[in-house]
Design brief:
heterodimer; A: alpha+beta; Uridine Diphospho-n-acetylenolpyruvylglucosamine Reductase, domain 2; Uridine Diphospho-n-acetylenolpyruvylglucosamine Reductase, domain 3; Vanillyl-alcohol Oxidase, Chain A, domain 3; 3 domains; 8-stranded antiparallel β-sheet; 5-stranded antiparallel β-sheet; 21 strands; B: alpha/beta; Rossmann fold; 7-stranded parallel β-sheet; 8 helices; globular; Oxidoreductase (chain A); FAD-bd_PCMH-like_sf (chain A); oxidoreductase (chain A); D-arabinono-1,4-lactone oxidase activity (chain A); FAD-bd_PCMH_sub1 (chain A)
Chain lengths: 443, 248
């Protein structure tokens, strides 16, 4: 038995871990599923309990890493355990980029499908599922099924948190790029309203946009943000000095390593306020050219950054409210600010259209993501209050980030849950695929 | 499943009418628990009490019939799924004078206070080990930390229970399941009605508060009130000649 947690390092549970080398081995493991069921796991970047299975079997898919690229169409066929990091390292020098990348490259293709991940380009390109042409899924009987967007099971699997089967392969369209750089515009906003107005008015001019919010700023500065927006740089965009080298060179790496141990409470209002102040001031408005790594994955810069929250771990709270419900967003931001909630990196993103994924998170509206140390007093109550506000506004919580929501709340936020359950029950009538998240949320 | 912030979902209370037990359950429900099983003698047929917004199930349970205990645990799992917190809260206090006069009654009380806990504890542990998570909250007592002349039948059963619970906790180490031993002093309530108060006594609500805090911090032993830990560090080493003269 191995104890597993998500990225937030909370609520560990033991499971038997298997690391199959092929899709056939996955099918064999599923056929011999133990009573407590089977859960698929990639790089463990879901924050909560999505890839844990207390007392059961966890299938670590990270040995499934084969891939191929059709250089004429940009179609990539990738095994589920391949990380976006490895994929980018292979694709970028060939002039291709993944259609969607979340804030870290260290997620697997299978995880990206199961969580239907989104990135800074959601407002134009939607989420990962929108770029898929087919999927291979090992279902409850241990058979491999190839699914296309015409299948209901396909859209129950995209965003389905691994509960319809083990994804072993995905085929998706990539986008052509001329360089491995991004042309970035940085802008600072005064307060939350200014942030929302600016994003609404000018987001469409960029493929990639995101706002970092200083949650500890109060009063007239509440919700002040740094807007970072960009597009893939063309060869002409590169500074003169950089044009000589390989425009597609891609050498991201983590430059720092978080210490193996950090005291609980290292991140407190004083240290985070100082960090936020420095970050806000450092982010001078202007335009420049930046590498793909620092632009898309600033957190990958520090390896194992989740350890700085100490042994008690942290929770990430990411919610969505539809357009027209900005009042709820304002209400939550002002409460967070009033309560002095310490959040290291709080990110606001304006979503475009979602995918047909039944449990998919993104939909048109605003999404805010924040990290909070789990030991904070009164946190459970505070987040439950937010859950209620979000549900009332017709919004929802991102399952890949969740580690604490109640089942009833989840059901209220995902109106297509019954439809999803029906398809899942047909595909897996005996409940072979089980995770701690599924138990907690009574999925 | 217990979530990232320590909120649990399903609770099984054995001795479903215990004041301390119910006080713990009420607090767990207030914190977000949604499913409760109250197991006690002749429970079914009655109307389940309203506890917050939780769904409450009743189950028949007789602590003195260990041969039925396995079924009780299985029935509870059937009702609510994985058990996050199991609280065996049944027990009889009785008076030493009565036990002195009626050894059969003494043996029966010990069978419930110790034997019943051993059997239900082992069955609960089997389930928790299988599911890979969950906590058994064992209500021990300072009476068992060092047994007193004044209530040595009750005290010796609690001493046995305390030892059993610690051993069980060690046996479960590494399985994901845990045991938390709770050692209250004198608890003011139905069980101790008519008795004179002892120093450092507490209410069922205070015991429950301490249990909740202990569950949150994954404590292994909880003293209620906390000061008793210090007091018993001294009491444990008092010379026998003095200890046997303790008035109660």
């Amino acid at each position: 038995m191995t104890f597993l947690t998500g990225w937030g390092r909370t609520a560990p549970t033991p499971a038997r871990l298997a690391r199959p080398r092929s899709a056939e081995e996955v099918a064999e493991l599923v056929r011999r599923a133990p009573g407590r069921g089977v859960a698929a796991r990639g790089l463990g970047r879901s924050y909560g309990d999505a890839a844990q299975n207390a007392g059961g079997l966890v299938v670590d898919c990270t040995a499934l890493i084969s891939w191929s690229l059709d250089e004429t169409t940009g179609l990539v066929t990738a095994a589920a355990g391949l990380s976006l990091h490895d994929l980018m390292a292979a694709l970028v020098p060939r002039g291709w980029f993944v259609p969607v990348t979340p804030g870290t490259r260290h997620v697997t293709v299978g995880g990206a499908v199961a969580a239907d991940v989104h990135g800074k380009n959601h407002h134009v390109d939607s989420s990962f599922g929108a770029h898929l042409t087919s999927l291979t899924l090992v279902t409850a009987g241990g058979e491999s099924r190839v699914l296309t967007p015409a299948d209901d099971l396909f859209w129950a699997t995209v965003g389905g948190m691994g509960l319809t089967g083990v994804i072993t392969e995905a085929v998706f369209r990539c986008i052509p790029i001329e360089t491995s750089r991004v042309r970035v515009d940085v802008e600072r906003t005064r307060d939350l309203d200014h942030t929302l107005e600016t994003m609404t008015a000018t987001d469409d001019r960029y493929r990639y946009t995101v706002a970092w919010i200083d949650l500890l700023a109060r009063g007239g500065r509440m919700g002040r943000s740094v807007l970072t927006r960009g597009d893939h740089a063309s060869r002409e965009d590169l500074p003169r000095g950089a044009r000589g080298g390989d425009p597609l060179a891609f050498t991201p790496g983590s430059l720092l390593k978080a210490p193996p141990w950090a005291p609980n409470g290292l991140l407190n209002p004083v240290t985070v306020r100082a960090f936020n102040e420095a970050w806000y001031l450092k982010s001078r408005p202007g335009s420049f050219v930046q590498g793909l790594g620092p632009f898309f994955h600033p957190l990958d810069f520090v390896e194992g950054w989740n350890r700085v929250y100490g042994s008690r771990g942290f929770v990430q709270y990411q919610f969505l409210v539809p357009f027209g419900e900005e009042a709820t967003l304002r209400r939550i931001v002002s409460r967070l600010s009033a309560e002095n909630v310490v959040s290291f990196l709080t990110v606001l993103k304006r979503f475009g259209p979602g995918t047909p994924g039944m449990l998919s998170f993104p939909a048109p509206g605003w999404t805010l993501a924040l990290d909070i140390p789990a030991g904070r007093r009164g946190l459970a109550e505070l987040l439950r209050t937010f859950d209620d506000w979000v549900a009332e506004a017709g919004g929802r919580i991102y399952l890949a980030k969740d580690s604490r929501m109640a089942a009833g709340t989840m059901a209220a936020m995902y109106p297509r849950l019954a439809e999803w359950r029906k398809i899942r029950d047909e595909a897996d009538p005996d409940g072979v695929f089980r995770t701690d998240l599924a138990r907690r949320l009574s999925l | 499943m217990k979530n990232a912030l320590g909120t649990v979902d399903a609770v099984l209370l054995l001795g479903g009418r215990s004041e301390i037990g119910l006080a713990i359950v009420e607090r767990l429900v207030r914190d977000g628990a949604r499913r409760v099983v109250l197991a006690s003698r002749d429970a079914t047929g009655g109307e389940p009490p309203v506890i917050g917004e939780a769904e409450v199930h009743l189950l028949d349970f007789d602590a003195s019939r260990p041969e039925t205990h396995g079924e009780v645990i299985d029935a509870a799992v059937k009702l609510v799924g994985d058990l996050d917190v199991v609280i065996p809260a049944f027990g009889v206090l009785g008076s030493q004078a009565v036990y002195d006069a009626d050894p059969v009654a003494a043996a029966e009380a010990v069978a419930v206070n110790y034997g019943g806990h051993v059997s239900i504890g082992l069955h609960a542990a089997r389930r928790l080990r299988e599911q890979g998570h969950g906590t058994i909250v064992v209500l021990s007592s300072v009476a068992g930390v060092r047994v007193r002349r004044a209530n040595f039948v009750y005290g010796s059963a609690k001493a046995g229970l305390d030892g059993f619970a610690q051993g069980l906790g060690d046996a479960l180490h590494g399985s994901g399941a845990r045991v938390m031993v709770v050692r209250p002093g004198f608890v003011i309530g139905r069980m101790t009605e008519g008795m004179t108060l002892a120093p450092l006594s507490s209410t069922p609500g205070q015991v429950a508060d301490a249990v909740i805090a202990g569950l949150r911090s994954d404590a292994e032993i909880v003293w209620v009130p906390g000061l008793l830990k210090l007091m018993f560090a001294v009491m444990r080493v008092l010379p026998r000649a003095i200890w046997r003269k303790m008035p109660r």
